[in-house]
């Protein structure tokens, strides 16, 4: 049997989020911007936001360590939307086709709770999703099993095999599959479209 519900990751799947975009605007050279997102405001630091730590609280220890970068560190929050450049190519029409067929669409994102609403407002296609599980609000992140269990609850407790989940990180897909959810490693809209056709959803 094919899936009947689609569960989307957001960043790198629906919306194109890359912090380097912001810091290219704040540093004079590409090398400086790349070094900053690698060594200062990196994903090891950002994951605490995804777990529910406030951006202000998480910034303070980093500012103490790198006081000369205070403006750039605080910009992670104040200029959050400058890290985005629209939607992942091909995804808005794909989502619209699923909506037209009345396929239930949901979201599951590692995302800071405090910026969720403004992110959703900036990208109206996200409003096609009936609900979005936000890690920062739940205090648990992918690939931890608990967040997938919450997602299933929020979708009305379907059989996990009724759900097709797509994420750009293979570890997150594997975690979903461990709970019986179908998963698709996202590398582009064309590949996901083919999977949706195979599942009988398009």
Structure commentary:
This protein is of the alpha/beta class and 202 residues long. The protein folds into two domains: 5-16 and 86-198, Rossmann fold (3-Layer(aba) Sandwich); 18-83. Helix content is 47%, strand content 14%. The chain has a five-stranded parallel β-sheet, sandwiched between helices. It has a two-stranded antiparallel sheet with strand order 2-3. Helix 1 (20-26) crosses helix 2 (30-39) and helix 4 packs antiparallel against helix 5 (70-78). The mean pLDDT is 97.
Q: List low-pLDDT spans.
A: none
Order of helices and strands: EEHHHHHEHEHEHHEHEH
The average pLDDT score comes to: 97
Topology, number of strands: 7
**CATH architecture call of the largest domain:** 3-Layer(aba) Sandwich
Give the domain tally. Answer: 2
Gyration radius, in Å: 18 Å
Name of the level-1 CATH class of the largest domain: Alpha Beta
CATH superfamily descriptor of the largest domain: HAD superfamily/HAD-like
Quickly give the structural class: alpha/beta
Query: What about the largest sheet?
Result: 5 strands, parallel
Span between termini: 14 Å
Which fold name is given in CATH as the topology of the largest domain? Rossmann fold
